[in-house]
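Methods — Computational structure assignment.
A single polypeptide chain was analysed. Its primary sequence is given first, followed by the predicted tertiary structure written as structure tokens.
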Amino acid sequence: MASNGARIKVSREPRRQLNNRVAWITVDDGATESECAVIDVSPGGAKIVAEMAFDVKDRLALTLLADHSKRHACEVVWRRGKTYGLKFVAAEPAAEALTAPVGAAEGIS
């Protein structure tokens, strides 16, 4: 294979290696919680190992710290055995916002 120029460097998000740090996965709107190991995390997602089985496109919440209530909404984007790639996604709009009367956000009565 011949190369006729400089290599193009692909810019990737910074990663933080967590070396199998324990984290928690929550599914079924909080009904089921399970431990997992986080291998690495970036601003856009995480790579985990879990005993629980997930399919690509499944949604779940990831809690990285035991004493922290922040849960990251995630979508499974790839799977290799018990290792999963997660993409952080925007949280679903609150149910109240979906049922609010038209014009309520603008202060119209």
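Note: The mean pLDDT is 78.
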